[in-house]
Amino acid sequence: MRILVIGATRGIGKALVDCALLENNEVSALVRNPDQLKKKPSQLNVIKGDILDKEDVAEAIKGQEAICSCVGVPITFKPVDLFSRGAANVIEAMQQNDGQKYIAVTGMGAGDSKGHGGFLYDSIFKPLFLKSIYEDKDREEQLIKESPGGIDWLIVRPAGLTNGPRTGRYRVLHDLEGITARRISRLDVADYMLKQLKNPVDFGKTPLLTY
Phi and psi for 155 in degrees, rounded to 5? Predict the structure, then answer.
């Protein structure tokens, strides 16, 4: 499968690139600074560009079967618009291409997954350190859900991220009643995304991933 990963230099994006290449997919990475790709695999197609640039996004998604947005920002107390502006550019570009799939990674606490991270996360860490980030992730999710043209989308909400192994054993939760989510490895988030591209049973949904 031809997969474009946006936000491939670290975190879930890097894990997704590594796993997708191991499975012999044709992987491209849209990155602002190609020099940040350490130990770049020879089979990876690197595209210099920015998710906030409409022309960069439109050019990068041409010929792709799947677009996976794994962008992130460090903790900040300033207003954030990366996620919503980036999603708007991807959605607009996808209007010109048929049959593509769009996977966006947001996180535990976005949308109706609020209140399922435990007391410390829900009452202290998220409101104090992630408020502006999650306000924009909420906007991102809303844009995707309301996207025109029948876009085939999946929003992935991972629990707290670790650098643990790819186990393939985790919970994919749609009904969150009584759930307190804790941890999942970045590699297992990538595992789920690739499985969904092969067998897209959760598209149009917003699952929470946790162990």
Answer: -105, 125
The C-alpha atoms of residue 153 and residue 200 are separated, in whole angstroms, by 10
Give this prediction's pTM.
0.95
Please give the Cα distance from 61 to 124 (Å, whole number): 38
Q: Are 70 and 6 in contact (CB under 8 A)?
A: yes
CB–CB of 122/78 below 8 Å? Answer: no
pLDDT tens-digit series, residues 181-201: 999 999 999 999 999 999 999
Sign, CA dihedral 110-112-113-115, equals positive
Strand order in the sheet with 208-210: 45-48, 26-31, 2-6, 66-69, 101-105, 152-158, 208-210, 171-173
